[in-house]
Design goal:
By secondary structure, the chain is of the alpha+beta class. The protein is built from nine helices and six strands. The strands form two sheets. A four-stranded antiparallel sheet has the order 1-2-3-4. Helix 1 runs antiparallel to helix 9. The chain is globular, with a radius of gyration of 20 Å.
Length: 230
């Protein structure tokens, strides 16, 4: 019965989107229009910077003309935004809902994790006329199993440069050139992260169609387990 439900859900999912173009699939499943990168030059209230910081970027980094220039951005971030524990803070002063924005980050000049680093990187790239998208992905091992004692995920940035979308991991300065933004799974060999016992594959892109399908499968699994005789 369980296998039949899984096959049925996979068939329905594939049938619903079989006739869509790549752009339509992206727009429908992710809400991101990768065919219009200029859209992601616009700063948001969370990523907009002050005129002073804009001038600092211009003097320190200059322009981003190609993939090779991304290392200049990485060096600037890690030089000017140390981890909060290295800056004298005993507790995380940043990573709270409503506080992860460039105004606060440039005031504190620290980062607390992958989410804050991704916000900083996306903001700087947009300011340097490079389209950038902040993405988050829950861990596959966490998403597929009934794990409640912790959450697992990673934040990264997609940037449009040299006529293509690339994946950037500002935690370890990794750049993935051969990158497909339509793939709902980001593998470990893409992020250059070390797998742990719970994450032996990689991450799902948040709001990806496959993630929605697997959430449904997880709910079905729980329901079937609840029906088992004690």
């Amino acid at each position: 019965m369980k296998k039949l439900l899984i096959v049925l859900l996979l068939f329905v999912s594939l049938t619903l989107f079989a006739n869509e173009s790549v752009e339509e699939k992206i727009e429908n499943k992710w809400g991101i229009n990768y065919s219009n990168p200029e859209k992601y030059l616009m700063q948001t209230p969370n990523t907009e910077v002050s005129p002073e910081f804009r001038e600092e970027l211009k003097n320190s980094i200059g322009e981003v003309d190609g993939i090779k220039d991304l290392q200049k951005v990485y060096r600037f971030i890690h030089k000017n935004f140390p981890h909060y524990s290295d800056a004298g803070y005993e507790e995380d002063p940043v990573d709270y809902v409503g506080q992860i924005n460039m105004s606060r980050l440039t005031e504190l000049r620290v980062f607390s994790g992958c989410t804050t680093l991704a916000v900083i990187l996306a903001s700087i790239l947009r300011e340097l006329d490079t389209p950038a998208i902040h993405i988050q992905g829950p861990g596959i091992g966490w998403a597929l199993n009934d794990i409640t004692e912790y959450t697992s995920g990673h934040a990264m940035v997609e940037a449009y440069i040299e006529g293509q979308w690339v994946l950037l991991d500002s935690v370890n300065n990794h750049i993935t050139v051969d990158y497909d933004p339509t793939d709902p799974v980001i593998a470990f060999n893409t992020t250059n992260q070390e797998p742990n016992p719970y994450e032996d594959v990689g991450y799902f892109i948040m709001f990806g169609g496959l993630l929605a399908l697997l959430i449904v499968l997880r709910l079905i699994k729980r329901w079937m387990q609840s029906k088992k005789p004690v």
